[in-house]
Each structure stands twice: as structure tokens, then as C-alpha cells.
Amino acid sequence: MRKLHVRATTTWLLPFLFVFGLTGLSSQAQTVLTISGEVTKPLTLQGSDLKAMAHSQVSAKDRDGKEHQYTGIPLVDLLKQAGATLGGELRGENLMKYVVVKAIDGYEVLFALAELDPEFATRTILLADQVDGTPLPFGTGPYRIVVPGEKKPARWIREVKAIEIRFAK
């Protein structure tokens, strides 16, 4: 009876371990990020695709109040690659577009599309994959949104899996 109980527990636990990367089989190269919605070219990017993109660095204070160096891809660069409405096209009804960033655990945050466009905003919002020169820790990464200058890091969403562009109509 005891052996059956262990087997049942193991059977239940294995999918959980695999999904959350505790088996050691999960890596950044196997992580998928999707960009969809009001874009001309929806994307499904593997970890290797993201790693190959140009990275930038920003300094920002995390919840711990300490200054950290985050490295990653400017969110606007990902949106450009997907064909989101940016730059000179971001006017009129297109200003009603917003971005929803989704995490593995179901947490979601929202940004006005103009907040991400360098023609409207001066800060760089990053899809970070490193902090202080090391990969983001388990439970935070492999990707996290970093928003420099925000008083509360509530939109610093962890374990990012998807980005959607939508109309607010």
C-alpha cells in the first residue's frame, strides 16, 4: 500500500516539476515567449531567439530598495519585431492600444502602448533576463519586466510568458 502511495505522489509530482523546471530539464533555450494581438506579425520566440537579440542595460531599484543593473531586451524592440503600431503610426485611434504582459502564474499587468514608445517616453522598459550580470533566479525568470523609475514595482511582472497588444474599444 505504501509503495502505491509513493507512486501516485510521484506521478502527480512529475508534471509539476517539469512545468516549473525543477527537474533540471528546463532552460532558457526551451522557454517560449509569444507576442500576439494587434500586430502584423505574431511571434513565438524561443529562449535562443531572445538571447541572440540586442540587449540593453538599465539601473533600477527593486523591491529591496537597492540599485541593480538589469540586462535584457527593450520591450519596444520586441513590439517592433512583431509589427506593433509605433512611432509615427502611433496616433489617433492607435493611441487606444495597450499591452498586456502575462506571467506563468496568471498574473497580468497593463501598459499603454505609448508608454513603451521612445517617441512618447524617455525610459526604457526592459524584458530582463539578467540582474547584476547573472541570470534571473528561479521564480523570477527566465524573463521579467523591469520598469525604471516606478515607485512600486507592481508591474515588474516575473516569469513572463506572453505579451498581447489590444484595443481599448
From TrEMBL:
Provide an example Pfam family for this protein.
Oxidored_molyb
Origin species: Spirosoma pollinicola
Question: What is this protein called in UniProt?
Answer: Molybdopterin-binding protein
Residues of the Oxidoreductase molybdopterin-binding domain: 68-164
Stretch forming the signal peptide = none
Source domain of life: Bacteria
